[in-house]
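FIELD: query
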Amino acid sequence: MILYIRSFHFLPDFPPLPVAPNPHAMGRWGRQSPVLEPPDPQLQGTPPALPPRTFMRQSSITKIGNMLNTAININGAKKPQSNGEASWCFSQIKGALDDDVTDADIISCVEFNHDGELLATGDKGGRVVIFQRDPASKAANPRRGEYNVYSTFQSHEPEFDYLKSLEIEEKINKIRWLQQKNPVHFLLSTNDKTVKLWKVSERDKSFEGYNTKEENGLIRDPQNVTALRVPSVKQIPLLVEASPRRTFANAHTYHINSISVNSDQETFLSADDLRINLWHLEVVNQSYNIVDIKPTNMEELTEVITAAEFHPTECNVFVYSSSKGTIRLCDMRSAALCDRHSKQFEEPENPTNRSFFSEIISSISDVKLSNSGRYMISRDYLSIKVWDLHMETKPIETYPVHEYLRAKLCSLYENDCIFDKFECCWNGKDSSIMTGSYNNFFRVFDRNSKKDVTLEASRDIIKPKTVLKPRKVCTGGKRKKDEISVDCLDFNKKILHTAWHPEENIIAVAATNNLFIFQDKF
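FIELD: result
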């Protein structure tokens, strides 16, 4: 009988972190390749704490006068011919419409909660903005997808790692919602090093008339209490409060790229370039290391972890992708350290497409399991693939996203666009998938009809009743009227983050500092 012993990571006793790589050095996976030097034994000790920050920068999404909240009126709109497919139309845009965009206002993640009533966004300034579904739009016939600002709070602040002499950005890398069990909402947010659990709650009552406390909160001298009084409840305007409940820190040497909540709603994983840790939501000072691909000699490093996610129903199963284009499925029941995967999904490379950039463009930037748990999608630089968990040899579906860029890989390498990390998402029925592209284009693929469409998140369409027109890219020859030349694409405008409502055809698309919300029109 083999006995597996699960090892603990006692976080306060972690050894000093290795020296950070040169951020301007070009590695195989971009400018942040984890090619590190061994730690300096002289750098022992605890870094001094940063002074508290009492202010919060205001997000452009919540600035008064800078929000355009335009909703469509479907009742008077003419219905197109029904062909079994959704025709997307504009619903709302959030964020400032100025051309002068600050780096802190750029949206870095988008996530619906489990019933789609709330939509959270994080930005590079460390802020989290939560939108709530408008009850009137939900009750309308037909239903409309309109969201209003619900809460805004500062999730992370910039920090400084004194051991590595490296600044830690406040940018929000990922947001994940916990399933709601009571009127209170919980979500996880992470930057490069620290995961935080936030509680979002409502309060519309306050208590006054205390015997031992003044109205301003100061404690009263008991000798001045001459009479007893019964505290009373006072109705106040609705107040939404966001408070940090847990902070999970000091467990990652490299930058966190993924977090995922387990189906048991008690544990979650956090993944960086070389390790995946398992946490319990109630324990902040220790975590389990369940995957460690760091070689003894860093010169032997051949791949890094790019994304990780738990299975939606099986609490013991998770998947993670790598820069080599492989996806590994692990079962935590088989061993405490899941270095040996249960399944490996990898498609053999086509020799005809072999080039200098093959290894870079085959790197998987995102992986998402379907709601049913039977399939998963993976996004590499040029395509999105659908995998059946019962078949490891090849994907069952492959959809090219922007194949016309294959001829421009050299210039994309020079301007670093080839290292962009595009995300992907499922719709609620697992029948369609969505991902982003350049020029503020995003792609929607229908798995049933095998049809796809290219749409654009543009400020030119922010008018009521505007139906999105399909866009086409011309690669050569004579360009048609509605087509755009591949040489005219703006690579500074890119859709990296998208989200799909879990129950309805409502999608959220992040375009720089603007959040576009579209819905279907039947």
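FIELD: remark
Residues 1-57, 62-84 have pLDDT under 50 and may be disordered.
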